[in-house]
Every structure is written in structure tokens, then in C-alpha cells.
Amino acid sequence: MITFDNVTKVYQKDWVALQDISFFIDKGEFVFVNGTTGAGKSTLLKLIYKDEEPTKGTIKVLDQNLRLLKKKNLPKLRRKIGVIFQDFKLLQDRTLEENIAFALDVTDTPARDMRKQMLEILTYLRLSHKKFSFPYQLSGGEQQKVAIARALVRDPYILLADEPTGNLDEKSSQEIIDVLLDINYKGTTVLMATHNLKLIKKVKKRMLRIEDGKLAADQ
Ligand SMILES: Nc1ncnc2c1ncn2[C@@H]1O[C@H](COP(=O)(O)OP(=O)(O)O)[C@@H](O)[C@H]1O
Ligand SMILES: [Mg+2]
Description:
This protein is an alpha/beta fold. Helices cover 32% and strands 28% of the residues.
């Protein structure tokens, strides 16, 4: 599902962010990407959704060699990959429902299916009673769930979470991890980047450990 073959990423001519990284992630896996700040976690995720290009090496995502992927086919690939971030990236002047509908607008989903899908996901995340709320009326944990809902509504094959618990307290962090584990249980491949080793130690899942841009452990 995701293959990195001797991938190196150099920023600005000489800043090596990732060096000679190789791994394979199978369909349905849940993988933590762990490392201290600046280790290269976000870069690794960005390479997967082609927000950055590798300097060397080959990346394959969903059977596509990203280097050979034509620009016009990139949106099609991105539709299959959900991404969530530490700072949620919600539209502040839109309700929760509108935030999610916005993600559906860019797909060709008919309006009727759209509403149905949206309600299903909001109910699943126990947020349906807040669908007319604005982001500022929600807690951090709830905002992250909206971001998750927005990613899920497009029914992605892969969900990338970049420090999704970075702005949350311990309880909300645990809740978000539980949601991600459940999404994975239902079949989505999930990669979650975090510097917080304590948070993920309890969860028995594969971990790619990045140290100074190198793959220090895959366990
Ligand atoms: N666009 C960029 N231009 C130059 N350097 C960058 C860029 N993005 C990240 N870096 C550098 O690459 C390294 C890895 O960054 P990043 O992948 O964001 O690490 P992490 O997510 O683990 O904190 C850091 O030293 C960072 O400063
Ligand atoms: Mg990062």
C-alpha cells in the first residue's frame, strides 16, 4: 500500500531531512511514526500525499509510483488519502456541518448521499448534536474529531495524522487515538506521527522511529 525505497529528502540544497528510508506498509496496518521535533516525521507524511517530492529514491502509494504520477491524476490520488493535522485546519466561519460538506464538494458526491454520509460519520463520532456549532464553540478534542470526520467522509484508503494530539490534553489525546484505532479496525490504513512516546507506548502497534532523518527502528 505504501512503499519507500531508499528515500532521501533534502531541503534547500543541503538540509537532509530524511536519509535513505525504506519500509513497506501493508493494507490495513496501523503505524506510529515517532521521533523528536525536527526528526523528519511531517516530511515523511508529506511525501506520501505528494506535498513534497523526494530528492532520491522511490515512493509507491496505492500501487502508483509517485514520481510517474501525472499532475492531472494527483487530485484523484489525494481523494483516497485523508490528512489531519495538529492545528485541525477547520474553516472558522463555517459550521461543523459546512466544514465537512466542504470536503465533499470537491468530490462528485450527490447532495442526498452527502448528507447521509455526513450524518453517519457525525453520529459515529458522537458529534451530531453539534452539527450547527462553529469550531470556536467546540473543545480541542471535538475540533479534531471534526477534522477526522472531514477526512473520513471521503472514505479514504489511507489516513495520515500529523501530531493529531499535539494540542490536546491527555484525555482527549487518548480519545483521538481510540478513534484512529477504530477507523483502522474498520479497514483504513492509518499512519500517525507523534513525538509523544508516552502516549503511544500503551498501544501495541508498529512504530517507525525516526532519528535525525534516519529510520532508527521499525518494530
Ligand atoms: N520546507 C522546508 N524547508 C527547509 N527545511 C525544512 C522544510 N520543512 C522541514 N524542514 C526541516 O527538515 C527537518 C525535518 O522537519 P519535519 O519533517 O517537519 O520534522 P518533524 O515533523 O519530525 O518535527 C527539520 O530540520 C526542519 O527544519
Ligand atoms: Mg512535524
